[in-house]
């Protein structure tokens, strides 16, 4: 879902460029980020809207991490491969988030801070609980050795991305708690 929403926003002009023009305003109108035909303000503008959206994105990460954790513990178990699909998707979403905040100016990072805050403060503790031995995964899901390796690789990749995200926050002096 994170990937889909990011793609929709990028292709519909929902992300502002560095000069503030989203391409959604009429000729000669002041760009508010979401204006209707001829520059009429639709009322769905401003930093509050963006902060709420980005906080929702962070909440999706947290929910996905909780869902993966619950499935791995045997709660609400769906198809075994579904857990791998979810963690693969989570990894892809983290890579997209990292591409938007890593090595970017503070102003860009600040735009994504609501997502970053929820991912690190609320999602990471749940993600850090996802620790299973090969035997447990094989027994619980009848996974092959390749599926178990994929799980461990994805888990390690996400953990590294979370560590890097934490480092970025520290480099900007951002206090998360």
Task: Write structural notes for this entry.
By secondary structure, the chain is mostly helical. The protein has one domain. It is built from seven helices and no strands. It has helices spanning 2-12, 47-72, 80-101, 106-111, 113-128, 134-141, 145-171. The longest helix has 27 residues, at 145-171. The protein is elongated. Residues 1-47 have low confidence and may be disordered.
The DSSP helix count reads 7
Most strands sheet: none
Portion of residues in beta strands equals: under 5%
Q: How many independent structural domains?
A: 1
CA-CA gap between termini = 26 Å
Sequence of secondary-structure elements: HHHHHHH
| Morphology | elongated
Rounded Rg: 19 Å
Unreliable parts: 1-47
Structural class: mainly alpha
| Average pLDDT | 71
What helical percentage do the residues reach?
55-70%
**Annotation, overall tally of beta strands:** 0
């Amino acid at each position: 879902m994170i990937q889909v929403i990011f793609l929709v926003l990028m292709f519909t002009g929902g992300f502002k460029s560095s000069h503030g023009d989203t391409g959604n305003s009429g000729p000669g109108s002041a760009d508010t980020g979401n204006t209707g035909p001829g520059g009429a303000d639709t009322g769905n503008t401003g930093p509050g809207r963006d902060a709420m959206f980005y906080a929702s994105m962070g909440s999706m990460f947290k929910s996905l991490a909780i869902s993966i954790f619950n499935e791995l513990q045997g709660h609400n178990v769906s198809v075994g491969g579904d857990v791998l699909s979810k963690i693969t998707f989570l990894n892809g979403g983290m890579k997209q988030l990292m591409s938007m905040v890593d090595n970017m100016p503070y102003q860009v990072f600040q735009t994504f801070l609501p997502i970053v805050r929820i991912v690190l403060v609320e999602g990471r503790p749940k993600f850090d609980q996802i620790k299973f031995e090969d035997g447990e995964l094989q027994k619980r899901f009848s996974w092959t050795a390749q599926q178990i390796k994929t799980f461990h690789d994805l888990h390690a990749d996400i953990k590294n991305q979370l560590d890097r995200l934490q480092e970025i926050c520290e480099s900007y002096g951002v206090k998360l708690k």
